[in-house]
Amino acid sequence: MDWNDAKVFSVVASCGSLSAAARQLGMSQPTVGRHVEALERALDSRLFDRGPRGYSLTEQGRELLPHIYNMERAALAVMDHGGNSENQIHGLVRLAVPQVTSSYLTRFLHDMLAELPGIEIELEAKNDFVNMARREADIALRTEMPQSGDLRVKHAYSVEIGIFGSPEYVAAHPEARSEERFTKCEWVALQRDVSARSVDWLTRKMDGRRPRIRCATAAHVHSAAEHGAGLCMGTIAYLKDNPRLELVSPPVSELRYDYWLVSHAELLNRQKRVRAVWDWLDALFERELR
């Protein structure tokens, strides 16, 4: 059995389709399919049922998956042991945070590296589910509290959403400061598959109309609004110091979000570099956002 085939198998099992697994692995979809087929040939077993809704594990696949996870954890433990001493605070720590949070967090990375000079950071901005069981990240920031797994979870902070526009746009459109904003102003918003909750709220307020500009990332939404394309919604704590955007509404009571710090309990207990970054982030959120 080829270890690379096994790793691809575990990602397909997690994602449920070749296309999603290919995006996560940075491979082409045919390459992912070849790895799965090679593993099935090596084990002489059909591991997935292929259907119009994706790939689902067969009974043989469900029996195999825990063994693959155990192999992955063992391999990661070997790499940890072979690297820097666990008692030293240096080495790589991988962070996974939602896209909307990444731009905010990058403002503070210089301070983190100054206080933790031996640390290296890989920051991944993604809204997709991060599988902590497979160590896709050392520390994750999530908008939903995980319900299972040997994880350490701590409430990081809560945020409120407000409505923003560029100073020039707001001056030219005084209705931006009133409820008329929903019928008389242009809007820039996220695509619904990125943030269904906020987009559905805005669509209701706009009587079913859709914003004329819809973006895949919050950074693009904010940039368009900064340049006068219309009003946008944004996290007040993240945007309050942005001179190119002006808050024109009180917090939207229906749109309050909780964020959770998540890591493996074993990592926090055993890897001082991970614990150091966890504690640094916790202190940052306490100081800036709670």
Describe the structure.
This is DNA-binding transcriptional LysR family regulator. Keywords: DNA-binding, Transcription, Transcription regulation. Pfam families: HTH_1, LysR_substrate. Belongs to the LysR transcriptional regulatory family. This protein is α/β, with parallel strands linked by helices and 290 residues long. It folds into three domains: 3-82, Winged helix-like DNA-binding domain superfamily/Winged helix DNA-binding domain (Arc Repressor Mutant, subunit A), CATH 1.10.10.10; 91-153 and 259-288, D-Maltodextrin-Binding Protein, domain 2 (3-Layer(aba) Sandwich); 159-256, 3-Layer(aba) Sandwich (D-Maltodextrin-Binding Protein, domain 2). It has helices at residues 3-15, 18-25, 29-43, 59-82, 99-106, 109-115, 167-172, 181-184, 196-205, 218-226, 236-239, 265-270, 272-288; strands at residues 48-51, 54-57, 91-97, 119-125, 139-142, 151-165, 188-190, 213-215, 232-235, 246-247, 256-264. A hairpin with a 2-residue loop joins strand 1 and strand 2. The longest helix has 24 residues, at 59-82. The model has no long low-confidence stretch (mean pLDDT 89).
Separate helix tally: 13
**What would the principal axes of the Cα set say about the shape?**
globular
The end-to-end distance, rounded to whole angstroms, is: 50 Å
- Following the backbone from N to C, one meets helices and strands in this order, namely HHHEEHEHHEEEHHEHEHEHEEHH
